[in-house]
């Protein structure tokens, strides 16, 4: 699996904080959190995966339109992203399409609106070949169809927490950000790390997959090894971040 906080070295660079009743976390927004994609995902992303994060909006970010996570190629063209639209209270998954420029799944309903406060929340997205499912605080919100996706181009950059229209770093608190090789991990997540959070009905704690492991029976082969841990990026020589309008 991919521990994005580890690969971006955010705990070492920004330091950790402690909230009462909460695990340690990092406060982002003071500098860009960017890394070369080939250093984070040397073999790209698996065809199906789960994205899991525990985070909290701050006063300003809850109304912003921004990318929680985004991968873009060397020309600045987005490859995959999770967008949090504070104005419309929506969660949007975007990916480069196989037969079109981009495919997307937009989650917007009263339960999703609850995400945009200043409490700790957990987002889990199950990304499969034909569908994307959203789990919010361990509750299944919706499963939406999605058109065929193309493999991502790893000759670019991966970024955490940037504003959509000008790429300014976003102020928010981040406790955890993981990508698991098995899309089913999204529904297996528990919310023990949330204050008074519910526990998933499975009661099973997902484990981080490793190369060749089989977490959910012999039919699952986790074939997306993470790369070696890289050195912290030099934030004084970062390449500019471009947003593709198209």
Automatic annotation (TrEMBL):
Classification via InterPro entries: ConA-like_dom_sf, TSPN-like_N
Keyword Manganese annotated: no
Keywords of the record: Repeat, Signal
Residues in Thrombospondin-like N-terminal domain copies: 1-183
Source organism, top-level taxon: Eukaryota
SMART domains: TSPN
Name of protein: Thrombospondin-like N-terminal domain-containing protein
Species annotation: Stegastes partitus
Lineage: Eukaryota, Metazoa, Chordata, Craniata, Vertebrata
